[in-house]
Amino acid sequence: MNAWNTKNAHRKLSAAVAIALLTGGYCTNDVYANEVQDRDTYTLPDVVVTAERVPTQISQTAANVAVVTAEEIAENHYRNAAEAISHVNGVVVMQSGMQDMVRLNGDDRVLVLVDGRRINSDQGTGSGRAGASLKEVPPMSMIERIEIVKGGGSALYGSDAAGGVINIITKRGKENRTTIDVAAGAWSTQEYRVMHEGSAGDWSWSIAGGIDRRGYMRYKSDGETRKMPKSDYRNNELSLRVDKKLGAGDSLTLSVVHHRLDGNSHNLQFMSTSHVDRLYNDWSASYNFKENTTTPGVLRVFDNYKSMEFSGAFQSRLTGVDYQNGWQLGKNHRLVAGAEWHRSSSTNLANGYDGERLTNTALYVQDTFEHGKWSLIPGVRMDHHSTFGTHYTPKLAVNYAASDKTQVYASWGRVFAAPQADDLFYHSVNMWGGTYGNRNLKPESGHTETIGVRHAFDAKKSLELSVFRSKIHDAIRWVYNPIAFTTNATNIDLEKKRGLELTYRQELSKQWSYDLGYSYIRTERDKGTGQGLVWENSNTRPNGYRIGIRYGAGAWKANLNATMGAGLDRTVFGQKSYTIVDLNVDYAIDAHTSAYVKLLNLTNAQYPVYNSKYYPGQGRFFQAGLTYEF
User: Fold this and answer.
1) 180: which residues sit within 8 A by CB, 6+ positions away?
2) CB neighbours of 530 closer than 8 A, spacing ≥ 6?
3) The whole model's pTM is what?
4) CB of 49 within 8 A of CB of 147?
5) How does DSSP assign 43-86, residue by residue?
6) H or E stretch covering 571
7) Which residues, in sequence order, are CB contacts of 23 under 8 Å at separation 6+?
8) What is the pLDDT of residues 433-462, one digit of tens each?
9) Could you give the CA distance from residue 102 to residue 580 in angstroms, rounded to a whole number?
10) Beta-carbon count within 10 A of 495 CB
11) Beta bridge partners of 530
């Protein structure tokens, strides 16, 4: 398609959707509008699986938990997982090198799972301590819900979980249906997606694919809106899940995820643009047993492969076997145990290493005792790393149900985080100096603590508060030496974090509801230079404020989300605060068709997406689309 036809198609599609939204009352009859139910009360699901590795009532979960549901994903038409979780209080999404990485409790040591399968790479992402990019997860149309557990998870999940765990749970195919989603928007954006799910006898399946194209991007910097040079972007994705029921509570699952991304990475400090080509190919096969019990089990084998062209070629493969089982030892006593074997192979020929292998074998056990209003949850994990030996990470959590409306919890856990392949083996020399890994690095270790309370004033109003802190010894950072002009991977003496989160939700009526959120993070580091603990000033959201307003009546649904960051260091970011406002509107034309409009960064705000003003976020963006289900 030539450029004129592409732009003409964008105009036609945008006009069609705008007409459908603005004149929707005349495009359908009142009978269907009356058939569309008002939204349900805005509450979390009753049960989550990530916090304790088995289905657990939220009221009995000793952790700060948030959930993004399939309903929220559908009515907001979230384009990707990063957009979906960015509206969760306390969650910060960072973008660098065409990757979407997450901070929980101010920490980028976050474990990302897909149906319990680890996607973090031992090679790292090249950005801070993050080990996973949300670009690697299945398409949004296949996601049943996203569970976010904030706070240290090393005792159950091992390395990478110091800040928390995100588990993306996909849909098991049910009724036969196909959904087509076509959208166009600003910056010559085109998106085409299709999803099919179904079942027959003991078989069920779901498959989704998509093609995304963007011609360029605009951003705001120093008060002016500019066009980013060479900012075109392409993403081809395909995901498959097939389930075979073997009997009551037993099944087999095969999952495949493929992404091919092509675009550019930008750094305004050096006015440089680097081409980025990323490939993700992941698969897993699982035997699921005791699915209809309180202690389901799984035996899983998986293989994750990623490659990247970004100023050189990088490849990483993680192969693993996971086993988990559980036992209900009594009415109020439950035991969960498991074993893992993971082996990675990482290559970065342009920067000094080829086929470097790291292997980790782990055993873990967690016991849950309930007595009256109290729950006691001790656990321990043993990791044996091929380079760093054996490490134990115990945990202890307490949950107290003060009443049917109030729950108080506290948790403490040790942290173990092994160095990544880049930390150990990276070796790059250039005319300005060099960047060097360090084979003598020590693992990061420490502990995290969280105290929280949940209170439901009534069926329509609730309040959640959590306070946390963490202390990491031998924290790994890349430190620049201005005398030698080198950057080296280094164990610094100490890294401390503390903060809090406060969330209030209220349903005003069947049509209107809202939530308010505040989060605070303070990170301090002692680099062993004699200065003691020093404030880490590259945090994009030291103080976070959030408001979400939801409306649903008849065929209409609308969501307004505003996020504010405050307390930024002006010398690093060029500003002390920012506010991002997003508006998503959906109109159900009939039982099979809906039209939607997305207005992202409605006020065209200037804001950072990484650790300085040289990584600006996208400017105002408009998109319109149609979905059809049959």
Assistant:
1) 193, 194, 627, 628, 629
2) none
3) 0.92
4) yes
5) ---SEESTTTSS-EEGGG--SEEEEEEHHHHHHHT-SSHHHHHT
6) helix 570-573
7) none
8) 899 999 999 999 999 999 999 999 999 999
9) 18
10) 25
11) none
